[in-house]
Structures are given as structure tokens and as C-alpha cells.
Amino acid sequence: MKQSKQKILGIMLIVVAFVMLASGLNAAQIDGAYFEKTLNVNNTTLKLTGAGLFRYWGFKAYVGAFYLEEGSTVKEAMSDRAKRIELQYKRSIKGKDFGPATDKMIARNVDSATLERLRPQLDYHNSLYENVKPGDRYSLTYIPDRGTELALNGKPKGLIEGEDFAAAVFSIWLGSKPINKSFKKQILGLN
Questions:
Q1: Which residues contact 51 (CB under 8 A, 6 or more apart)?
Q2: How far apart are CA 180 and CA 182, in angstroms?
Q3: CATH for 2-187, among 3.90.190.20, 3.40.50.300, 3.50.70.10, 3.40.50.880?
Q4: Could you give the CA distance from residue 7 to residue 48 in angstroms, rounded to a whole number?
Q5: What does pLDDT average to over the chain?
Q6: Per-domain residue ranges for the chain?
Q7: Taking the model in full, what pTM does it have?
Q8: How far is 129 from 115, CA to CA, in rounded Å?
Q9: pLDDT tens for each residue of 89-131
Q10: Which of 54, 98, 156, 175 could form a disulfide with 109 if both were Cys (CB 3.0 to 4.6 A apart)?
Q11: Strand, helix or coil at 49?
Q12: What's the rounded Cα separation, in Å, for the pair 112 and 12?
């Protein structure tokens, strides 16, 4: 019974978020996390496509939002377009646990040769992770010809070059085998 109520509440929160997006308000709010409607990054305007709540083993893990370069469609989300994903955590996670999870999810979406070629970039990226506590927010922002920046609570941690790296790391949420298909639909605004 308790799980049913939680599931209904989760669905209601998602519906409210999408109604807010559709009505043209300035932001989305999911389970207490606030996401701007637009962002300006490196003189590029990114527009919010959607937001959602990701659960892992029944627990709220994080809420997230996806932004895509103005004028792009969600069909272009994995192309060489500026984009950002923001994840606000609901639980504490050790920094050392992010790397293995990142590697595992990327391995589901790229072939072994690509994974091996990207190994130096992945190792560097994974070394940037720090412990997070509830309320902390990681963002990954890709700008063509610049690279993918990992930031924690708005503070840049490092920049990883390459369109191929960006495609691999964003495949965690947007690839053909994302971490969660429902979450993918939510952040792309397809629900």
C-alpha cells in the first residue's frame, strides 16, 4: 500500500512538472528541485526539454533535467549539439562509486573498441568525482569544439575534450540502453 501511494505521488509530481513546462513558466520543479527554463552557457542558449525523478531499487536517487541547444529537437539530443544534464541527489553517494557506475553504463551503449579508445578520457572524468550529499548537484555540459565540463554545485571540476566522449557519457541517460527508459523519456519531455 505504501509503495502504491509513493508511486502515485511520483506520477503526480511528474505530471505537475510537465504541466509547468507546457504552460511556459520560467522553470520546472521536481520533488523540491528547481530547474531553470533556459541557461546561457558559452554564449549558447540551452532550453529545458524535460525533468524527472530517478529511483534506484525503490529509493529516490536523484532528480534531473536535460537542456538542449536552442533550435534543436530532442531527436538531435545525441548529435554534436550543445547540451546539459543536471542531477540533484536525494542520497549521499561516495565519489569513488561514480566511476564504476559510469564505466558500466557507457559499456552498455558503446562497443568495446570505443570504450578502450575513450579509456584515458573516462579515467580522467571519473577521477573528478567527489562525495555528494542530498541536495548536491552535478552537471555535465557539452559545448561543441570545447568539450564536456563536469561541475559540482556550479563549480567546474574539469573539461574533457571530444565529441565522442560527450556522446558516450550522455549515453548513460540518452543512449539506446539508458540507465532507465522512463527517466530518459521524462528528461526528453516525451511522457
A1: 17, 21, 28, 30, 33, 35, 63, 64, 65, 66, 186, 187
A2: 6
A3: 3.50.70.10
A4: 25
A5: 89
A6: 2-187
A7: 0.84
A8: 19
A9: 999 999 999 999 999 999 999 999 999 999 999 999 999 999 9
A10: 175
A11: strand
A12: 40
